[in-house]
From TrEMBL, chain A:
<protein>
    <submittedName>
        <fullName>Spore germination protein (Amino acid permease)</fullName>
    </submittedName>
</protein>
<feature type="transmembrane region" description="Helical">
    <location>
        <begin position="188"/>
        <end position="212"/>
    </location>
</feature>
<feature type="transmembrane region" description="Helical">
    <location>
        <begin position="9"/>
        <end position="32"/>
    </location>
</feature>
<keyword id="KW-0472">Membrane</keyword>
<feature type="transmembrane region" description="Helical">
    <location>
        <begin position="117"/>
        <end position="139"/>
    </location>
</feature>
<dbReference type="GO" id="GO:0016020">
    <property type="term" value="C:membrane"/>
</dbReference>
<keyword id="KW-0812">Transmembrane</keyword>
<feature type="transmembrane region" description="Helical">
    <location>
        <begin position="307"/>
        <end position="325"/>
    </location>
</feature>
<feature type="transmembrane region" description="Helical">
    <location>
        <begin position="340"/>
        <end position="358"/>
    </location>
</feature>
Automatic annotation (TrEMBL), chain B:
<feature type="transmembrane region" description="Helical">
    <location>
        <begin position="292"/>
        <end position="314"/>
    </location>
</feature>
<comment type="similarity">
    <text>Belongs to the GerABKA family.</text>
</comment>
<dbReference type="GO" id="GO:0016020">
    <property type="term" value="C:membrane"/>
</dbReference>
<feature type="transmembrane region" description="Helical">
    <location>
        <begin position="386"/>
        <end position="406"/>
    </location>
</feature>
<keyword id="KW-0812">Transmembrane</keyword>
<protein>
    <recommendedName>
        <fullName>Spore germination protein</fullName>
    </recommendedName>
</protein>
<dbReference type="InterPro" id="IPR050768">
    <property type="entry name" value="UPF0353/GerABKA_families"/>
</dbReference>
<dbReference type="GO" id="GO:0009847">
    <property type="term" value="P:spore germination"/>
</dbReference>
<dbReference type="InterPro" id="IPR004995">
    <property type="entry name" value="Spore_Ger"/>
</dbReference>
Length: 368, 504
């Protein structure tokens, strides 16, 4: 955002709630049970809470970073200020590549799910093309339109998908939850490590921070957004724990989708088709937000017009998504992105904060 | 450059037209009349367009007085005439341009003693000739409430508004649009309520219009709209007085144009198109219920046939066992894929609607019955479509008629077709793609610079009192905030919200 701070483009602080929540809950929520329950078994819900606490702290750190560097608009200028032009821009570019990977992973994984569950014969390129065309139209509208999509991406699925998840409770075995603390602390922390990946997405805050109208007020909403994500994950893991056997989950790729097969009403069967369709609204804002972040970053680093960079990014996404075909490759891509994301949020963000606060203190002493 | 200089010359030539030149030009037309007579040595000549003036006014107010009163006076000059003639709008001028425009608006020009430069212009226009005197607002009918609608005469329309808004703060700003039609356009707003910036935007956009003839207000609507390539109407256009008055009181701006019985109000949101004045005349519970029914109707109307296509083409597993029997039974004879079946019926319904709208009322009624019953039943028996689909399409058509604003119901008719195609290609995912596209599009739209999807996005919690539901009048004391009105309270909130204790 420019110095004059054109208020037309800024968003109200409470909308951060929707952006944070929307960017965190993606394809992961369909399949995260397997990874967490492998480590922490029926105590997985503790891992969810532990991971959530870590992310709360990380969001706090992101806000601290920006508060301690009030001159910086976003991560790009922050890098340039504290790490110099070359190193700073290099780091920014790496971050943008990570955002790009995020968009790619979400896009490709969702298309794979559609191919497996709905259209086994249809080409992946059709879906990625239409997805990316829609993304183009959205991102052209600017950040406000992207945030609007995030808003709908939270509200509509909340009314349509979430209620369906409660139907399986009819067959619940609540004793699955017992005994509590059956797993060691290390197991729970291992589960939390696997879980942290599911909270990824909030780090795009580093890019859109300057688009918030009163950033200090938005902090509260960002934390609420994360808390709401935790609530959703807790509900899902709780229902999965009481519905599935611990061993059984290890053999199901998308346990949440299987849960959605259970509800039965007189006029519709196979609810998972509805869930999968509505899931476009969950996936789509993440892709838009990531593409917007990349194009915004490119503008800040190389001063390329966003109108020009967005088509380039989208065609790149399209081409790359064509080459990732096999199930193993998609799994590898997922692993890669979550590993990078994990280190970005767990290592990089705190280190950056420590570095900035030391650099600031150092500067002060030098000035004195 | 030479071309521009040519135009410039032409323009400056026009400016220096003299009165005899003008008269010669006008005399080419056979309805340009000229009366000449002498009273007591004064030679009087009157020029006017026979087709524009009211002959009765000419006789009673002009000729009669000139022939009876003038002989009694000792001398007569042009400046005396305003006192002699009992006409409300009368002026003495020597400006040729004024004379030209006034003559073309139904004024008579009077010259005295061959004074070639100055003349008197007398208003003799017949205001209501050929215009209907009243409008029963049949296109936006409501059972309860006043049934007076706007007419083609702008004077009458302004009168109707002023009668209900008895406040000196009601401001009319007049302007002329159209190089040929010289249409009188009035921007109305309430000073002290309406945001000044909105008024400025409206006036600015109207001033920027470059056009020849304003046939109807809907032309202005298209020319001042924020996004001209959207199927969605950005401003409410209505023929009901209560709607316009309500909009003005809320803090919106209304645009009147002469010759059009429709009035544009804006900035509008999506929900304004689904509110009916009747919501406010019924108790709030009923009003809210019918509004919800209407919004459900819109969703059903746009999504029913796409869902049918998606389910029967790709997701037949979704049909429960008990329902599968009837569907198979009714579709077993149909040789087409669902998409062709749906397109056939949808287009039939569109044809019926279109034919019904173009034909005279009595024929249209018969056609509706013939079309609806005979074609529907026959196409099922001929195995062109299934019974189930017939019901779905008919209901969807019915639901789209519940929209109170005609422009919006046209939009709903239209957007169904792209969604059907999305559903054909990508099933349920395609429908959600289309919904996404709609949401993004609606999110990008603006009406006079204010967002279209308010109060949903941007979220305005307080504006929900009058959007999906219509709260009771003690709840709607506040004007909606997206209009940024200068005063928020419509009436005293404390008195409106006062609640008495039990048995008090």
């Amino acid at each position: 955002m420019n110095e004059q701070g054109n208020e037309r483009f800024l968003i109200s602080p409470f909308l951060v709630f929707f952006i944070i929540h929307c960017s965190q809950v993606g394809v992961g929520v369909l399949s995260f049970q397997r990874a967490v329950m492998k480590e922490a078994g029926h105590d997985s819900w503790m891992s969810v809470i532990v991971a959530s606490c870590v992310v709360h702290v990380l969001i706090w750190i992101v806000y601290k970073i920006f508060q301690s560097a009030p001159n910086a608009e976003d991560i790009v200028s922050l890098h340039a200020q504290y790490l110099g032009k070359w190193l700073g821009n290099l780091l920014s570019v790496l971050l943008l590549i990570y955002f790009f990977l995020l968009a790619l992973t979400v896009l490709r994984t969702y298309i794979e799910i559609i191919q497996v569950w709905m259209f086994s014969l249809i080409g992946a390129w059709q879906f990625s093309l239409i997805f990316l065309l829609l993304t183009y139209y959205t991102v052209l509208g600017g950040f406000r339109v992207v945030v609007g999509l995030c808003f709908w991406g939270v509200v509509i699925p909340l009314w349509v998908i979430l209620p369906m998840l409660f139907f399986p409770l009819e067959y619940a075995h609540y004793r699955n939850l017992l005994p509590i603390f059956d797993h060691s602390l290390i197991d729970i922390f291992r589960g939390a490590k696997a879980m942290t990946v599911q909270y990824l997405g909030f780090e795009m805050l580093l890019m859109y921070y300057s688009f918030l109208k009163h950033p200090e007020q938005s902090h509260k909403w960002a934390q609420w957004g994360n808390a709401f994500t935790t609530l959703i994950y807790l509900i899902v893991i709780f229902i999965s724990l009481v519905f599935y056997n611990e061993e059984q989950v290890q053999h199901i790729i998308w346990p949440t989708l299987t849960l959605a097969k259970i509800p039965e009403v007189p006029f519709i069967e196979r609810m998972e088709y509805i869930v999968l369709s509505i899931y476009v609204l969950v996936i789509f804002p993440i892709i838009c937000l990531a593409v917007w972040s990349v194009s915004r970053g490119a503008k800040r680093i190389f001063s390329i017009k966003q109108r020009k960079s967005v088509p380039i990014i989208l065609s790149l996404l399209f081409v790359v998504s064509l080459f990732i075909v096999q199930r193993e490759n998609i799994e590898k891509l997922n692993m890669l992105t979550s590993k990078i994301g994990f280190y970005v949020v767990i290592v990089y963000i705190p280190v950056l904060y420590i570095y900035i606060s030391i650099a600031k203190r150092f500067k002060k002493t030098v000035q004195q | 450059m030479s071309i521009f200089s040519f135009f410039k010359k032409n323009k400056s030539k026009e400016k220096t037209k003299t009165l005899p030149q003008l008269l010669n030009e006008l005399k080419q037309s056979s309805d340009f009349a000229n009366i000449q007579f002498e009273t007591r040595g004064n030679h009087i000549s009157i020029y006017y367009f026979d087709s524009l003036i009211d002959p009765k006014l000419l006789q009673q107010n002009v000729l009669c007085h000139l022939q009876n009163d003038v002989p009694g006076r000792s001398s007569l000059s042009l400046d005396d005439l305003p006192q002699i003639l009992p006409v409300q709008r009368i002026e003495v001028t020597d400006n040729v341009e004024t004379i030209e425009t006034k003559l073309l608006k139904g004024f008579a020009m009077l010259q005295l003693n061959e004074n070639k430069r100055r003349c008197v212009l007398i208003n003799l226009a017949s205001e209501n000739l050929g215009l209907r005197p009243n409008n029963d607002s049949e296109n936006e009918f409501s059972v309860v409430g006043p049934k007076v609608g706007f007419v083609e005469n702008i004077g009458t329309n302004l009168h109707l508004i002023r009668r209900q808004l008895v406040t000196p703060n009601l401001i009319f700003r007049e302007m002329t649009i159209g190089s040929m039609s010289k249409t009188k356009v009035v921007v109305a707003y309430i000073d002290g309520i309406t945001n000044e910036q909105t008024v400025q935007t409206v006036v600015q956009r109207l001033n920027d219009i470059e056009f020849d003839i304003v046939f109807d207000n809907s032309l202005l609507d298209q020319m001042i709209s924020d996004n001209s390539s959207s199927p969605f109407p950005l401003f409410v256009s209505t023929e009901r007085i209560d709607r316009v008055v309500y909009a003005l009181v809320e803090g919106q701006v209304a645009i009147f144009a002469d010759g059009s019985p429709y009035v544009i109000t804006g900035p509008s949101t999506l929900f304004h198109f689904f509110t009916s004045p009747e919501d406010y005349y019924l108790p709030w519970i009923l009003g809210s219920f019918f509004r919800l029914i209407r919004i459900f109707g819109v969703m059903f109307s746009t999504l029913a046939s796409p869902i049918y296509v998606a389910v029967l083409t790709y997701h037949y597993e979704m049909i429960p066992k008990d329902l599968l029997g009837p569907i198979i039974f009714s579709r077993s004879n149909v040789p087409f894929p669902p998409i062709l079946e749906v397109l056939f019926l949808e287009i039939t319904i569109e044809l019926l609607r279109e034919a019904g709208a173009r034909l005279p009322t009595k024929v249209a009624q018969t056609l509706g019955i013939v079309g609806g019953i005979v074609i529907g039943q026959a196409s099922v028996e001929a195995a062109l479509t299934s019974n189930v689909l017939l019901i779905i399409v008919a209901l969807a058509a019915l639901a789209s008629f519940t929209t109170p604003i005609f422009k919006m119901s046209n939009t709903i008719r239209f957007i169904r077709f792209p969604i059907i195609f999305f559903a054909t290609f990508w099933g349920g995912v395609g429908i959600v793609f289309a919904i996404c596209l709609l949401l993004i599009h609606l999110g990008r739209l603006q009406s006079f610079g204010s967002p279209y999807l308010v109060p949903f996005y941007p979220l305005r919690r307080k504006d929900f009192v009058d959007s999906l539901v219509r709260s009771s009048y003690s709840g709607t004391v506040r004007r909606p905030s997206y209009l940024r009105p200068r005063t928020f309270w419509r009436y005293d909130p404390k008195k409106a919200k006062q609640k008495k204790d039990i048995d008090e």
